[in-house]
Amino acid sequence: MFFKSKFSYSNSNSSYSDLLLDIDSGNIEAIYFYPRRRETDVLYKNGKKERIPILYNDQLILEKATENKVELTINNSRKESSTANSFASLGLFLIFLVAIILIFRSTSKLASRAFGFGKNKSKFIIIEDVETRFDDVAGVPEAAAELKELITFLKEPKKYTDLGAKVPKGVLLVGPPGTGKTLLAKAIAGESGVPFVSIAASEFVELFVGIGASRVRDLFSQAKAKSPCIIFIDEIDSIGRQRGSGIGGGNDEREQTLNQLLTELDGFADNSGIIVLAATNRPDILDAALLRPGRFDRKIEVMLPDLDGRKKILSVHSLSKPLSKNVDLGYWASRTVGFSGADLANLMNESAIHCAREESKFINDLHIENALDKITIGLRTTVISSPNMKKIIAYNEVGRAIVSAVKNGIDSVDKITILPRAGTLGGYTKLNPDEDVISSGLISKKLLLSKIEIALAGRAAETIVFGENEITQCSINDISYATNIVREMVTKYGFSIIGPISIVSEGSDVFLGEGLFRKKSPFAENTCSRIDKEIINISKVSLRNSMDILNKNRYLLDKLVDILLNLETIDKKKFKKETFDFLNV
Ligand code: ADP
Ligand code: MG
């Protein structure tokens, strides 16, 4: 049964605690529960109607209403209009819909001719009234904080224009799938009350040359008409990858589309009220032209949530699900290392399904356990479950952080985490690049050697802690990175005892697969074997140096690993605090 239409509620005279009492004493006929609006409408048995504010994720009301068999209607929408109202207008809406379809059918053929080729098949979605808000996105506080700034701009662009301030046009959201990139983009639109125009970049590119470019044009012209607004381009790597690589001259269509996108990005004025957000989990393959100032010059990382973040996300996704009293979301957060927001949403949803299937009133631990089993079986293997593996990863990451702190100062360490990153097995240590190197563009021998030692530090830590025979493949990516640098040192920069010679031949090998048409080396075999020896030698010495550093800091190594295993992430501040008095340089 739904409430009668145009049901108007007076704002509450009675308090939240009265409400709880009233539920218990059976004075209430029905409760209309709006978790996202943080309020509830209450219909009393004596006919009184009231609107009472509730808490975020108010399990208590859900629980009491369910227990006392009060009629409970949950509405996840943020908008005022009650279900009753929408039911009343449903009839009208249907008539309207039929009319629209009829009109559309008769004109669409005409329209497609009139508007030309690419236009009629545009696959972008425009949402005028976005319901998502920042409190729907949990566990990514840094990204959310950075993005909130954009809201002021979209709401009051004049403020910025008057000051002559420039606002970023393009923001790149980088992170593994399911971490909430789309959700964040929508939240900005929702919070600012502007339309959300979105497309998946893969939709741009089709079989016919020219369609992609025309779709990009179309997207931007529609967005301009709607300004201020957000344009969201998902999977931007599918058109934005580097041009001119790949055998056979690359994909013309993709390049044209990318060029058009660049033109459009440059084409709208700085403060025109449009912000373009793009998402990817492969920032490394993007064309440098996309990242230039005035285009996607801001990069915001959206990471997998840590323990606390996961707890918050679980909470967001149980707003309208009654949990049994003894369910501790913190415990479930600790069981779900490596889960993305989407995985966690899925977990709560599956749990609700298990609960409904058993016809229980409350979701209990067993439901969640079953749901977790079901999900993890199908989940990618990067989720770390074994404590042993976590420990190995932690030693790898802390090792790198310590060597970096010794080589480049404590401030060079930005963040250590054992949460897996997209596409890699292990955790992740974020190091700050050296400002001097970036601004001068000069690469010194010392710099390269320190890079190599840091890269080999994971292997060094494992060797020291677990012994020569127990080392794992955990650090393979870092090792191949190190080897590449060593090779460049020797063969490109002339930084070794081989002397100041350059052995790499410039260009040409990009287009042709290496190995297929490889040029014969201009050097004698003897030189080549000396080069190989030198590469091996530098690598071994670097590993030794790395091990020396870690041996000197063994206490710190173990201590930080303990902390990391507990907290999963150590941020810059914490790292500094823990290392400052203990680091042996
Ligand atoms: P992405 O774009 O990064 O792949 P989405 O934003 O599409 O991820 O997330 C998919 C769904 O997963 C969302 O609709 C939401 O239900 C859930 N989700 C993902 N991240 C979060 C988060 N940080 N907080 C709450 N829910 C999330
Ligand atoms: Mg997405």
What does this structure look like?
This protein has 585 residues and is of the alpha/beta class. The protein folds into 4 domains: 10-74, Signal recognition particle alu RNA binding heterodimer, srp9/1, CATH 3.30.720.210; 118-301, Rossmann fold; 307-376, Helicase, Ruva Protein, domain 3 (Orthogonal Bundle), CATH 1.10.8; 387-579, Peptidase M41 (Methane Monooxygenase Hydroxylase, Chain G, domain 1, Up-down Bundle). It has 21 helices and 14 strands. It has helices at 16-24, 59-67, 83-115, 141-155, 157-163, 181-192, 211-226, 237-240, 252-267, 307-316, 329-334, 341-357, 365-378, 387-408, 435-440, 445-455, 457-466, 476-491, 525-552, 554-567, 572-579, and strands at residues 10-11, 28-34, 39-44, 49-53, 71-74, 125-127, 170-174, 196-200, 229-234, 274-280, 298-301, 413-417, 428-431, 569-571. Strands 6-8-9-10-7-11 form a 6-stranded mixed β-sheet, with helices on both faces. A 5-stranded mixed β-sheet has the order 1-4-3-2-5, covered by helices on one side. A 3-stranded antiparallel β-sheet has the order 13-12-14. The model is unreliable at 1-6, 82-88, 108-120 and 506-517 (pLDDT under 50). Magnesium ion is lined by residues 181-182, 234, 279.
Overall body shape:
globular
Task: Quote the distance from N terminus to C terminus.
Answer: 72 Å
How many structural units, i.e. domains? Answer: 4
Proportion of beta-strand residues: 5-15%
CATH superfamily of the largest domain: Peptidase M41
Relative helix content: 40-55%
Main beta sheet strand tally, sense and closure:
6 strands, mixed
